[in-house]
Backbone:
């Protein structure tokens, strides 16, 4: 039973897993060589569809289905989303730095399947070290004939451009990313049209996450059915989880989904730091509603997490111990979304700002009893009904994401919020 | 002010990487910053000329993103993360310590134009919280005291190039993951160090 797909090489060869020499010595580009000479683009597409690989960027949309939507006109583009910025997430950084050729082989295979001759890797501006590693790998791949014209004598050509962002979380949203790549403000577009029909330069475009595409070489080498045999239904394959917060052993862990949250936090994460008790955790990045210990024995899958009113999102598990001031923690999350709101839609631009101000007032000891209802009222204006999955009054889901921490503390820790307001200013303020 | 011959040829090279000229706006803005130590009206006008946009369109793009900073931002932008995972592990204390050592409030630059301290949103180092970047070069597991030392080093030594690996060894702690082989390149100014943009320098 396979339990590692993405991190095998970097685990075995920490000293040089990023180089082309090591990549080629460990079967790298072998799949590409074989695929270009023995497979048709449609055969690769079918394997990816059969794998039931769900996107690893946050939305969990099946990659093969997305590929199936690509309009047949040329030119078409493949854009790799390496704008990793969801608080709690640092997995793509590791894949970019430690095994860039795995991603590049995935890009070439995907481009061949999709009829793409120009791909882009959009890396967030705050990731210069990963970008340098990726650019070096791209240069190596060109020099070795895996990129450029007539790759390995197949007649297929592909260019890859590495592009650095300018510091904006919203560019992780795929249509904002495309605007950014076109040299515009990173403002999300109204959908439809979806990028597969009208994407970069209004041409058919597939946008996939770094981790999603890093899985492609394995899927093409071993077959979609083999991938589909790993893990529970609806959550196939392995996944790179980022563990952070008050765990003993933070880090990225590649695991087969379906384990319990207890296993994730206590076995893999080594439990809570300093022998403290667990208070709550965020199961899928800052946008996700928080979980309490009562669901510790529920399985870690996309569908179960959704059923329980949250999401696996980008695979970021943020753990909080019993000493955590949840109002201050919620403020940190809300401040993030307020800072990162692009400003196009009123409910998000104004709502996140107001949520931040109200929370700041409560944390600084100047909260008012009416703030409890006011917080929920502002949230309800951003995402009416406060239900899950959230209703949206905005072009993209950023606004509703800022609602998650508020509904979480108001549902699970309301007495703590009330006590903070009652106590007023802490001593010395 | 006109760009140096080297910058001009690099701009041409960058334009060649995209199917449409407009896409080069963001890389060229970094080039402009590298050329003048920060973004100026003149620099944006140059970028407009190269991409076929109006200066206002270029400024509209630049103002959307946090990393295109005005000239006068100083030699070192010190970004301290206080997003959720860093917040939980004391990022706010690190920010306070660095701000105190530099005698600056977040968002301020010191009188000598050396240091600019900012509160940053998530920089993707959550497993190595609390995390700090200097000119976007990452240091993970920075405790408040180490943050003070980092700050003093920048002010007193004013290194010409800063790189992640060297700073991590000197001031860092817990990392998000094993970084793998060391990197010899770093940043010589408040712009991400990336070869194709001509902004990566060897760390001495």
Residues:
């Amino acid at each position: 039973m396979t339990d590692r797909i993405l991190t095998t090489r970097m685990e075995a060869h920490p000293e040089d897993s990023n180089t082309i020499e090591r990549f080629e010595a460990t079967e790298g580009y072998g799949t590409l060589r074989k695929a270009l000479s023995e497979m048709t683009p449609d055969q690769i597409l079918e394997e990816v569809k059969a794998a039931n690989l769900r996107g690893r960027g946050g939305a969990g949309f099946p990659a093969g289905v997305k590929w199936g939507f690509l309009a047949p006109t040329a030119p078409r583009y493949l854009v790799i989303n390496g704008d990793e910025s969801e608080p709690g997430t640092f997995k793509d950084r590791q894949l970019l730095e430690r095994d860039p050729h795995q991603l590049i082989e995935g890009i070439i295979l995907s481009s061949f399947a999709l009829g793409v001759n120009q791909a882009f890797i959009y890396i967030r501006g705050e990731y210069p070290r990963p970008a340098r590693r990726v650019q070096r790998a791209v240069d190596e791949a060109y020099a070795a004939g895996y990129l450029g014209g007539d790759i390995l004598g197949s007649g297929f050509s592909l260019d890859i451009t590495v592009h650095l962002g300018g510091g904006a979380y919203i560019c992780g949203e795929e249509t904002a990313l495309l605007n950014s790549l076109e040299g515009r403000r990173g403002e999300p577009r109204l959908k439809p049209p979806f990028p597969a029909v009208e994407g970069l330069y209004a041409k058919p475009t597939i946008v996939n996450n770094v981790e999603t595409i890093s899985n492609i070489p394995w899927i093409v080498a071993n077959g979609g059915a083999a991938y589909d045999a790993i893990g529970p239904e609806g959550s196939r394959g392995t996944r790179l989880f980022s563990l952070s917060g008050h765990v003993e052993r933070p880090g990225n862990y590649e695991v087969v989904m379906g384990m319990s949250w207890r296993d994730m936090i206590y076995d893999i994460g080594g439990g809570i730091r300093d022998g403290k008790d667990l208070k709550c955790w965020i199961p899928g990045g800052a946008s996700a509603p928080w979980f309490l210990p009562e669901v510790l024995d529920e399985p870690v899958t996309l569908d179960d997490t959704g059923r329980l009113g949250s999401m696996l999102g980008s695979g970021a598990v943020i753990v909080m111990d019993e000493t955590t001031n949840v109002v201050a923690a919620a403020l940190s999350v809300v401040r993030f979304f307020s800072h990162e709101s692009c400003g196009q839609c009123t409910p998000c631009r104004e709502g996140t700002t107001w949520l931040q101000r109200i929370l700041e007032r409560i944390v600084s000891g100047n909260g008012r009893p009416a703030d409890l209802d006011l917080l929920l009222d502002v949230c309800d204006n951003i995402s009416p009904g406060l239900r899950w999955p959230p209703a949206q009054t905005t072009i993209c889901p950023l606004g509703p994401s800022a609602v998650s921490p508020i509904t979480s503390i108001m549902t699970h820790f309301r007495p703590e919020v009330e006590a903070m307001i009652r106590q007023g200013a802490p001593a010395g303020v | 002010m006109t760009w140096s011959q080297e910058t001009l040829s690099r701009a041409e090279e960058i334009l060649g990487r995209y199917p449409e000229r407009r896409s080069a706006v963001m890389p060229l803005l970094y080039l402009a910053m590298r050329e003048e130590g920060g973004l100026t009206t003149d620099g944006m006008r140059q970028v407009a000329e190269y991409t076929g946009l109006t200066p206002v369109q270029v400024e509209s793009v630049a103002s959307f993103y946090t990393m295109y900073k005005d000239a006068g931002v100083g030699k070192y932008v010190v970004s301290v993360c206080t997003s959720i995972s860093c917040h939980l592990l004391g990022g706010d204390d690190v920010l306070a310590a660095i701000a105190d050592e530099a005698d600056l409030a977040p968002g301020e630059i010191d009188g000598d134009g050396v240091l600019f301290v900012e509160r940053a949103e998530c920089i993707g180092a959550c497993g190595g919280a609390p995390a700090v970047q200097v000119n976007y070069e990452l240091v993970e597991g920075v405790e408040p005291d180490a943050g003070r030392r980092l700050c003093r080093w920048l002010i007193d030594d004013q290194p010409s190039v800063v790189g992640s690996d060297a700073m991590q060894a000197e001031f860092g702690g817990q990392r998000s993951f094993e970084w793998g082989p060391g990197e010899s390149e770093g940043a010589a100014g408040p712009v991400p160090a990336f070869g194709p943009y001509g902004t990566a320098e060897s760390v001495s």
